[in-house]
């Protein structure tokens, strides 16, 4: 755990000086994490990157790194957590259902995953080497899959509420789709001679994901045109007028 974490017995609000010091530490931590990520991108896969070199890249003394992180294991966990947080923000933006059709949302979200795997292979590999929190029993990629499954389930539940349908048919859909996409793209990205290019594998997965979603929707009594603007579809099904934001 970072030494900047608040002790359980501290119940009062931080003073202005304490708040500034906390912000200063957070900025230092971010510099260290970003330096580590940049070096992971540059080095061969699996190469050891000494803390001294990370500190130098961040423009800090090695002792500062060890004041901000509780040892190398903690630093590595925080690097993976940083990767997951940053990529989650990217995926959240692509999952914005206020713009685009279901087809477009699926394609752009899956494409973002394919882009990250192929454009940042060393980061992808490092994320698989351990957890985001010490002691956790799943790696960072699995944590990301769980996070995105929960996010997708929340979006589906919100839409179901708006159009007043039972969303229980979708209970297993998000994790099933996320697992399918991640597993297929991992196999594709590591294939030395893939039979399909990036746009083709993205289109294939988007189509398969739609089949799963469409099947669940039909079992709930809902039929959706995957090429229609989703906000307009929601408005029509809910009997609302104007744009619908979820």
From TrEMBL:
<feature type="region of interest" description="Disordered">
    <location>
        <begin position="1"/>
        <end position="21"/>
    </location>
</feature>
<feature type="domain" description="HTH tetR-type">
    <location>
        <begin position="26"/>
        <end position="87"/>
    </location>
</feature>
<protein>
    <submittedName>
        <fullName>TetR/AcrR family transcriptional regulator</fullName>
    </submittedName>
</protein>
<feature type="DNA-binding region" description="H-T-H motif">
    <location>
        <begin position="50"/>
        <end position="69"/>
    </location>
</feature>
<keyword id="KW-0804">Transcription</keyword>
<keyword id="KW-0805">Transcription regulation</keyword>
<dbReference type="InterPro" id="IPR050109">
    <property type="entry name" value="HTH-type_TetR-like_transc_reg"/>
</dbReference>
<dbReference type="InterPro" id="IPR001647">
    <property type="entry name" value="HTH_TetR"/>
</dbReference>
<dbReference type="InterPro" id="IPR009057">
    <property type="entry name" value="Homeodomain-like_sf"/>
</dbReference>
<keyword id="KW-0238">DNA-binding</keyword>
<dbReference type="Pfam" id="PF00440">
    <property type="entry name" value="TetR_N"/>
</dbReference>
């Amino acid at each position: 755990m970072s030494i900047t974490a608040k002790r359980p017995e501290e119940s009062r609000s931080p003073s202005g000086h304490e708040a500034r010091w906390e912000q200063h530490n957070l900025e230092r931590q971010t510099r260290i994490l970003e330096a580590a990520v940049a070096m992971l991108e540059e080095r061969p896969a699996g190469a050891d990157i000494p803390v001294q070199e990370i500190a130098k890249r961040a423009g800090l003394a090695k002792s500062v790194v060890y004041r901000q992180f509780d040892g190398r294991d903690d630093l590595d966990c925080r690097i993976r957590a940083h990767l997951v947080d940053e990529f989650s923000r990217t995926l959240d933006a692509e999952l914005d259902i206020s713009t685009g059709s279901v087809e477009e949302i699926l394609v752009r979200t899956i494409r973002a995953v394919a882009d990250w795997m192929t454009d940042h292979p060393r980061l992808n590999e490092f994320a698989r080497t351990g957890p985001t929190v010490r002691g956790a029993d799943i790696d960072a990629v699995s944590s990301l899959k769980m996070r995105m499954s929960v996010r997708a389930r929340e979006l589906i539940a919100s839409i179901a509420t708006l159009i007043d349908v039972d969303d229980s048919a979708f209970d297993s859909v998000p994790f099933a789709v996320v697992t399918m996409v991640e597993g297929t793209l991992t196999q594709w990205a590591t294939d030395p001679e893939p039979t399909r290019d990036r746009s083709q594998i993205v289109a294939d997965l988007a189509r398969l994901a739609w089949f799963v979603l469409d099947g669940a929707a039909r079992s709930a009594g809902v039929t959706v045109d995957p090429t229609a603007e989703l906000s307009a579809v929601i408005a029509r099904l809910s009997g609302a007028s104007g744009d619908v934001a979820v």
